[in-house]
């Protein structure tokens, strides 16, 4: 693929991905405001943006074997743990941006768990096996990720058990 086309598709993928996520959050807000039809419209258009992003990623060759996809996840999570979030968090602290300090800390702590899970998953997949995972619990406040029962309080942000979403 030519450089300009690849750059354009990467930018389009990033933009469509961001729109997908923003619209999901906008839907949650609209639903909280009692605007259920607006929430439904946000979610529908969000799905269309996801389709667009997926099409761009496919053309870019970004969807490979499951083992390769897991390695991409490991690489991304490791970058976030080792480089991205420590720098973002330090910058936020330097500039006294408490909300950014909190959100980058929450993300960093969750990414550490995600990286380990992906490493274990890659070992299984590379042996020709599926992963064995129990009930997954995600804290809806900070993203803390764990297997099994939700704790009474999130160990990262202190949120109560009812703030965990089960997968």
Describe this structure in words.
With 167 residues, this protein is mainly alpha-helical. It has 3 domains: 3-59, Ferritin, core subunit, four-helix bundle (Ferritin), CATH 1.20.1260.10; 65-131, Ferritin (Up-down Bundle), CATH 1.20.1260; 133-167, Rubrerythrin, domain 2 (Single Sheet), CATH 2.20.28. Helices cover 67% and strands 6% of the residues. It has helices spanning 3-32, 36-59, 66-94, 98-126, and strands at 136-139, 145-147, 164-166. Strands 2-1-3 form a 3-stranded antiparallel β-sheet. Strand 1 and strand 2 (145-147) form a beta hairpin. The radius of gyration is 18 Å and the shape is globular.
CATH class bucket of the largest domain: Mainly Alpha
Number of domains: 3
* Span between termini: 38 Å
Structural class category? mainly alpha
Tally the helices: what do you get? Answer: 4
Provide the gyration radius in Å: 18 Å
How would you describe this structure in keywords?
167 residues; mainly alpha; Ferritin; Rubrerythrin, domain 2; 3 domains; 3-stranded antiparallel beta sheet; 4 helices; 3 strands; globular
Quickly describe the structure:
With 167 residues, the chain is mainly alpha-helical. It has helices at 3-32, 36-59, 66-94, 98-126, and strands spanning 136-139, 145-147, 164-166.
